[in-house]
Specification:
The protein has 3 domains: 13-82, Roll (Nuclear Transport Factor 2, Chain: A), CATH 3.10.450.40; 92-182, Roll (Nuclear Transport Factor 2, Chain: A), CATH 3.10.450; 217-329 and 357-391 and 418-435 and 463-579 and 588-600, Distorted Sandwich (Beta-galactosidase, Chain A, domain 5). The longest helix has 14 residues, at 13-26. Helix content is 8%, strand content 43%. The strands form 4 sheets. It has a 20-stranded antiparallel sheet that branches. Strands 5, 6, 7, 8 and 9 form a 5-stranded antiparallel sheet that branches. It is globular. By secondary structure, the protein is mainly beta. The structure holds nickel (II) ion (NI).
């Protein structure tokens, strides 16, 4: 890493330690406090060179959350304050603490004994963020809601045998159980759900990717150049992988497309109302912090080819820096035919190979594993893809009983219908800061005069001029997409340059908007939101979704109804992956893929990949 830090470079260990020292010196916290987040407080523009850390702390003795900015250059705290009524995220150590509390609790031990479990150390208890359900004894406490499993003896599947209906409820500040929600004994599933098998298939031959001349990318610190793409790799403890200043070289300059892109929030609401299962609504970004849970990736396992890894620094709850080696993976992939044309009569074929730059990171959150993949193609397309694998959240079901809100995935194991809802945030800059968004719909024209054969398709573009007009859903019947344009920059055809957001797999949520999770995840009810840029509007469910009563984030911000035409705008795309687990998703789910694309739409004067070398004569 270069000695001088770029304003968008993630914090390093020295900077994290310095932020901790500043907060310990000036933050007015007692010794019990732990560090929820120490992450780069990003300047919006490269021109601002100062280094700052956003710091959030939780003080259990007073049940108070504090946050502010440690100015590392000036060695001082800025805007440090107690956030009344807000709960910090749950760091991994606190998650583990819940398990220890339960295993030592006599009432919990006897609940296990009723289920024939003699050894509490064999039981995994996860203390999930509890949401906000208006339960009087929970108000004002730092909560976690427990889910329990009997771990298998081989140690390869802690989730194989759910202990259904048993939910210890924790006050994490007090370090104790406040009650146990026990909805009755259900027999443990018979099969421990082994993951590692003795006889792997023998006939899978090796594939090796060879790039004898090396990769086509160039890296300087966290700055990446690949073909005509320019971007910077960034990191946030909360969002994980962040990309800055994405642009494409054209007409002898780098033309900006996005200032910043990230997966800014996600929620996984489950569809079973019984027992304690309605509590399962994981905001993995805002409640736990995906960036803190990134995997250290391994060559040949997670990644194949000529890989360039990037390390990032995070920290434990004491604020001690912790390195995540190989947190971000970058490599090139062949992606089949790029473009092709044949003049059959002349026996002449022109064909290019498509290639993409892949930048990804993978995080493990309890039972689930998410990969976040960003693809940059030679033709100016940007692809975004979520890869989901891991163990579908299992619960137990009595022998002979049919699953109502899920599916049996193994004897005695059911997994409920749920959705993985991701909110991607794009700080747009298509050829500059001033952009507009148009919704593009297609419609059949009535048959008759001017459309005698009933084939006419109208193209209807609607400007989303204000925030009240820019809360949109997909429309299959209209083949709808959205286009971000810059009316101040015209292509050779005299039209505003643009990039279009092309949806892929998606769904609508089923949770009632007035339900506890519906109120907290208001963002999930629209596939597209556009907002005017505001520095503190980063997370679509608000900064502190843990135990929040709801209403924060996007639904709140857009009440200002700011104008969006030729303004500095942010586009939010909601990707909803609907999932009813199958028996084939057990014991580990094959990776599923869900994504969308940004495609140049009049951004270039022609196919920008015409200069890719032909592969044939
Ligand atoms: Ni799923």
């Amino acid at each position: 890493m270069p000695a001088t830090r770029h304003p968008f470079d993630p914090l390093d260990d020295t900077e994290i330690a310095k932020a901790v020292a500043i907060v310990k010196r000036d933050g007015g916290l007692d010794g019990s406090a732990w560090f929820e987040t120490i992450s780069l407080d990003e300047p919006r523009r490269e021109a601002d060179p100062s280094r700052r850390a956003y710091v959030c702390c939780y003080e259990p003795t007073s049940n108070r959350t504090f946050a502010g900015v440690a100015d590392l250059d000036a060695d001082k705290l800025v805007g440090w304050r107690h956030l009344e009524g807000q709960q910090a995220r749950i760091p991994p150590e606190e998650f583990g603490m819940a398990c220890d509390i339960a295993r030592a609790d006599p009432e919990f031990i006897s609940a296990l004994e009723m289920r024939g479990i003699a050894d509490p150390s064999k039981v995994l208890v996860e203390g999930w963020a509890a949401g906000h359900f208006g339960v009087a004894e929970e108000e004002g406490r730092r909560l976690a809601y427990g889910h329990c499993w009997l771990m298998n003896a081989a140690g390869d599947n802690p989730y194989g045998r759910p202990i259904a209906n048993l939910h210890p409820v924790f006050d994490l500040a007090a370090g104790k159980l406040i009650r146990i929600d026990d909805f009755g004994v259900i027999p443990l599933p018979p099969d421990p759900g082994p993951i590692r098998r003795d006889n792997p298939r023998p006939d899978l031959k090796e594939i090796s990717i060879s790039q004898p001349d090396g990769p086509s990318f160039a890296v300087d610190g966290y700055a990446v150049r690949w073909q005509k793409w320019h971007l910077r790799i960034g990191y946030s403890l909360r969002e994980g992988l962040v990309l800055h200043d994405i642009g494409y070289e054209d007409k002898s300059r780098v033309r900006p497309i996005m200032k910043r892109a990230s997966m800014a929030e996600m929620v996984v609401p489950y569809g079973d109302p019984a027992g304690g299962n309605f509590r399962r609504n994981a905001f993995d970004t805002g409640e736990y912090g995906i960036g803190n849970l990134l995997d250290s990736l391994t060559l040949g396992c997670d990644c194949l080819g000529h890989i360039r890894y990037f390390d990032v620094w995070t920290h434990d709850w004491h604020g001690t820096p912790r390195l995540i080696k190989n947190a971000v993976c970058m490599h090139e992939e062949d992606f089949g035919i790029g473009w092709k044309f044949s003049v059959v009569s002349a026996g002449q074929t022109s064909v290019t190979r498509s290639r993409r730059l892949v930048i990804s990171s993978v995080c493990t959150i309890g039972n689930y594993v998410y990969g976040f993949f960003w693809y940059f193609y030679l033709d100016g397309t940007i692809g975004v893809e979520v890869k989901a694998t891991g163990i579908p959240f299992p619960t137990g079901i009595a022998p002979g009983e049919a699953s109502t809100y899920g599916e049996l995935v193994a004897p005695g194991v059911e997994s409920h219908v749920h959705q993985h809802v991701f909110s991607f945030r794009f700080d747009m800059a298509v050829d500059g800061d001033r952009n507009s968004v148009k919704e593009v719909d297609f419609a059949a024209k009535p048959m008759g005069a001017g459309n005698l054969h009933g084939n006419a398709v109208a193209i209807n573009e609607t400007l989303l001029a204000r925030e009240s007009e820019a809360q949109r859903e997909m429309n299959f019947g209209a083949a709808r997409y959205w286009k971000v344009i810059n009316a101040n920059s015209l292509n050779r055809l005299g039209a505003p340059v643009g990039y279009k957001l092309v949806p892929g797999v998606n769904a609508m949520p089923f949770q009632h908007p007035d339900s506890p999770v519906g109120r907290r995840a208001g963002f999930m009810y629209k596939h597209l939101w556009v907002t005017q840029y505001a520095a503190d509007e980063l997370y679509p469910a608000g900064w502190f979704p843990n135990q929040h009563a709801g209403g924060d984030g996007l639904p709140k911000w857009v009440q200002a109804d700011r104008p969006l035409d030729n303004e500095d705008i942010v586009v939010w795309y909601t990707l909803n992956y609907h999932h009813l687990p199958r028996p084939e998703d057990w014991p580990v789910q094959p990776t599923v893929y869900a994504g969308f694309h940004w495609m140049p739409s009049g951004f270039f004067d022609e196919n920008p990949a015409m200069d890719v070398p032909l592969r044939n004569r």
